[in-house]
Design a protein that fits this description.
The protein is α+β, with helices and mostly antiparallel strands. The chain folds into 2 domains: 137 residues, Sandwich (Jelly Rolls); 75 residues, Arc Repressor Mutant, subunit A (Orthogonal Bundle), CATH 1.10.10.10. The chain is 42% helix and 23% strand. The strands form 3 sheets. A 4-stranded antiparallel β-sheet has the order 1-8-3-6. The longest helix has 23 residues. The protein is elongated and about 55 Å long. The two termini are 38 Å apart.
Length: 222
C-alpha cells in the first residue's frame, strides 16, 4: 500500500479513485450489469449486524444511516452504500433506511471485490473508503465536544452544506428532513427541539418554514 501511495499525490488519489470513477469502471470497463431498483420511503435496504452481500449505488434520493433507531449520518445520489462493510468483515455496521423514494443500482459485492482485487489501484479505493469512514466517525465525535445551541447550529449548517437547496436568502433542507428526524439526529427530546427551533427562528438563524421545507437556514450562517 505504501508503495502504491508514493506513486500518487493526495489530489491525484481523490481525482483518480473517486466514487464517480468507480461506477464508470464497474459499468463501462468491466461491464457489470446491476439490478435497477426503486425503493419506497422508510424502506430498510440494509440491517445493522447482518451479513451484507450487496452494494447499492444511489442514482436518486437520500438515505439515513441509523444505529438502534438513532440517526447518525446521511448520504445522497452519486454515492455507494455497502462498500464500507469491506472494513467490518462483511457485517453491516448500520441500518440504512430510505429517507425518500430512491432509485438505486444493486451490485453483488463479490463482483465489485473481484474487480478491485484484480487491479493494483483497487487497494486505493479501499484506502479511500477507510478514510471516508474515519472522517464520518471523527465528525460525529467532534459534535460531542460542542456545547448547547452551538452544537445544534453546527450540525444543521453541515446538513445544509451537504444536502441544502438554494432558495433566495435561505438554504433549505429537503422535505424528508422533518422535525422528528432532525430532532433525533441532534440528540434532543421533541419538546426541547421544538423550543430550540423557535429560538433559532427568533434569532434569524432559521427562517420561517414553508410547504417544501421545515428547516430553512439563513445563508449568512453558512
Amino acid at each position: 500500500m505504501n508503495g502504491l501511495m508514493e506513486l500518487y499525490e493526495k489530489k491525484e488519489v481523490e481525482q483518480l479513485f473517486s466514487e464517480k470513477k468507480l461506477i464508470n469502471l464497474l459499468m463501462n470497463e468491466h461491464r457489470l450489469i446491476p439490478e435497477e431498483k426503486k425503493v419506497n420511503k422508510k424502506q430498510i435496504i440494509m440491517n445493522e449486524g447482518e451479513k451484507n452481500e450487496y452494494v447499492f449505488y444511489i442514482k436518486q434520493g437520500i438515505v439515513a444511516f441509523k444505529k438502534q433507531d438513532t440517526f447518525l449520518s446521511f448520504s445522497k445520489e452519486a454515492h455507494f452504500v455497502g462498500l464500507e462493510t469491506f472494513l467490518f468483515n462483511d457485517v453491516q455496521p448500520y441500518t440504512v433506511e430510505a429517507m425518500e423514494k430512491l432509485e438505486v443500482l444493486v451490485f453483488k459485492k463479490i463482483e465489485i471485490l473481484d474487480v478491485l482485487m484484480a487491479m493494483q489501484e483497487g487497494w486505493l479505493y479501499l484506502y479511500l473508503l477507510n478514510k471516508e469512514e474515519k472522517i464520518k466517525i471523527q465528525k460525529s465525535c467532534s459534535y460531542l465536544h460542542l456545547k448547547g445551541n452551538h452544537r445544534s447550529k453546527k450540525m444543521l449548517t453541515e446538513l445544509a452544506k451537504d444536502f441544502g437547496i438554494s432558495d433566495g436568502e435561505a438554504i433549505t433542507l429537503p422535505k424528508c428532513f422533518g422535525k422528528k428526524c432532525v430532532t433525533n439526529y441532534l440528540g434532543l427530546s421533541f419538546n426541547t427541539g421544538k423550543a430550540l427551533f423557535e429560538k433559532f427562528r427568533r434569532e434569524g438563524f432559521l427562517l420561517p418554514p414553508n410547504q417544501e421545507s421545515f428547516f430553512r437556514i439563513h445563508r449568512d450562517n453558512l
